[in-house]
Structures are given as structure tokens and as C-alpha cells.
Amino acid sequence: MEPGSSDQSLSGLEGEDSPALPPSTNIRWRNLSGFWLLGLCNNFAYVVMLSAAHDILSQQGGLDTNETSRVPPTTHTSGNSSNISRYDCNAISTGAVLLADILPTLAIKLSAPFYIHRLPYGPRVALCILCAWGSFLLVAFSTTVGMSIGGVILASISSGLGEISFLALTAFYTSEVVSWWSSGTGAAGLLGALSYLGLTQAGLSPRHTLLLMLCMPLAMLLSYYFLLVPPVSLPQWSCSDGTIKRDPLSSVHQPLIGGPPAKLGGRRTELTWQDKWRIAKSLLKYLVPLAVVYFAEYFINQGLFELLYFRNSVLTHAQQYRWYQMLYQAGVFVSRSSLRCIRIHHIWVLALLQCLNMVSLLVAVYFMFLPSIYLAFALVLYEGLLGGAGYVNTFHNITQESLPEEREFAMATGCVFDTLGISLAGAAAFPVHNYFCSLPVT
């Protein structure tokens, strides 16, 4: 994925008498910055909901206030007995917010690769924007956990539909937009977690913090409809008629690596179910390790962060949770933006390292042997670096190895597996939360 890849000529294509003009510098940077902003806006609501998970579950009916004092240890009921837990627990695991934030996304991603290409991009993006707006409003004004979970579900629909749409959209542009999209999603994690942490730390209530974030769906609208320069072949407001029109300003159909160039004229190849199954199987060497990476890191985030509580810290429990989320997202942002510096082909190495990190923090929660919260901060930052590297290198490898006519489906299929890993982590967080919170003070 070289910086100059978008300036390659299309000369030599079958049926062409003269070389195509390369995209202008202005159009190139509009598209690159557009994908960066789309990545930022698409993941923003999803990240904020996870950062607010502790507040959503512990301050219902009081999101218009900000916690400033420590919370005493929770009385946890198990069976017919009641005891004071050694951990400071909410009644419900923050895994509940994770599942509400990811299961709708998983349902969309599992089904969408087989029909989403028949839906125009314009209405898809409009739906993403409306769901993002609705999520912030519903959670901000909720009075029950159920209402908040409904808002989280809307954020999940927006993020899931957006990710599968925008990753597929990269097939219509030059290959370098993938790294810019990935960097934007990493920035969403950092900016979302940091803005929630900073505004609440400054004294703003969670409710007013969420209302301020209504500007992000507006930024998505402006980025997609006004900043990006769509190629002629893009099915914007109507379903594609099966033909690809020549766009002299786009080299999207030129192979990234060796092999004959795809034709820009004629009918578009329609993938059969056998083709789709073949493509999915060929990607498993990247996607299974990616799912493991995401299972381990989100098990840490939503299963262990809440339990990794240092009572001797100047930070309250809610503040510690927000700091964990922010540092994790900082690590994700750095590694998702690192593709020009380092590229990793063997994703299984990242999966192994993340699993070791998960086991280390699980043992640390059980035995409570970490001497300082700053050591926990370092481990959380390292976790984010591994997770972001797994994401960006997986999709870079898919881009490099997919045939041009198969790339749109391959990218859409690839983003299913990280969501699958996150969903399994959310389910695993419940029994772990209940087990630890049932342990009495020793």
C-alpha cells in the first residue's frame, strides 16, 4: 500500500486507445481524508457506549449527575446467601452493554455480504447517520437500563452497517484508502474514549456529554455526501444495473499485485455462492486469528476492567474504568495508524500475545497482586496496540491477496470475524463477573 499507488496509469487496458488520467492531488486527498473521517465517525458512538458502560449500569436515573465519590463494596447475592464481595461490582456485568453494542452488528455482518451489494450506498449511509443520532439521544434521556440498552443497540446498528458498507466501498477507490479508514477507526476509539473521560472528569454530567456528541453523525453526513468524490461506477442512489462505467479518475479496478488487470468495460462479474464460499475459506488464515485477538481483548475490556479496581488510588472506580478505556483506545489508534511503518503477515502471533495478556490480567484480578494502577495502565495500552495491529494488518493482507472483482465481498466478509470474537467475549464476561463478584472478602 504505497503512497503513490493512486497515481498509477491505467494504460494498456484492453480496448483502450489512450492512457487514463491519474487522479488529481485534490481529489486524492479529498478521498483519503473522507475515508479517515468516515472511520472516525462510524466507530465513535460504539466506543462512547463502551466508555459509558459503567455509568449506564450504575447511574440509571442519574445520568444528569456526575460521580465524585467512591462507591462502597457491593452486596452480591448468590443463591440464598448474601455477602459483601471483595470486588466493587455492579449488579450486571458491563458485558451486557458490550453484547447490546455488538450483537446487532454481528447479525448485520453475518447476513449482509450476501445481499448488501444490491442496496445503494446513499440510503445505507443515511440509515447509519439516523441510528447514530438516535443512540445518543435515547441513552442521554433514558431513565431505565432497558432504554439505555435500546440506545446502545441503535449505536450498534449504525456502526455495523457502516463498517460493512465503508469497507466494501474501499473497493471502488485506490488501495491506500484502507489504511486511512483504519486510522480513522483507531482515532474514533481514542477521541471517543478521551472526550468522554475528559468531559466527565471536568465535571460535565454523562447526559450532557452524550448530547454534545450529536455533532459526530453530522460530520459523517458531510464527509460522505460532500467530501468524497464518488466514481461513476458507484451505485449511489439506485441499484447497479450490472455494468461498470469507465471513471478516468479512479484506478480501483487495477490489481494491487501481479496478474492481469480487470476490465473496466462490459458486465460486472456476479459472484456465485460457490465463489463466495471459496473466498471465505481462503481468508480463514487471517480471520480466525483476528477473532481470537478480539475475543481476548474484549474479554479484558468488558470482563476484567470493572474488576481491576485499585481502592488506594485517587481515582474513583468509574474514573478508573474510563481511564482503562481511553488508554486501550490510544493503543488501538497508534497501531491502526502504523501500517506505513510495520506490516505483519502472521496474525496468529498477535493472537497468541493477546491471549497471554488476557491470562495475565485474569490472574491479576483473582490474586490482586498488581502493586500499582500505573502497571495496569501499561498492560491496557499494550493490549490496545495488539488489537489495532491485528485489525489493520488483517485487512491489508486481504486487500493485497484478493482479486479486484472479489475484493468488495472479501472486505465485507472479513469484518464479520472481529465482531464474532467480540460477541463471544461479551457472553463469557457474564459468568466471570458473577463468579468474581460472589467471592467474599478475605
From TrEMBL:
Membrane-protein topology: Multi-pass membrane protein
Locations listed in the record: Late endosome; Lysosome membrane
Main location: other
Polar residues bias spans: 1-11
GO cellular component labels: early endosome; late endosome; lysosomal membrane; membrane raft; neuron projection; trans-Golgi network
Pfam families: CLN3
Keyword Transcription: no
Recorded family membership: Belongs to the battenin family.
Record-given protein name: Battenin
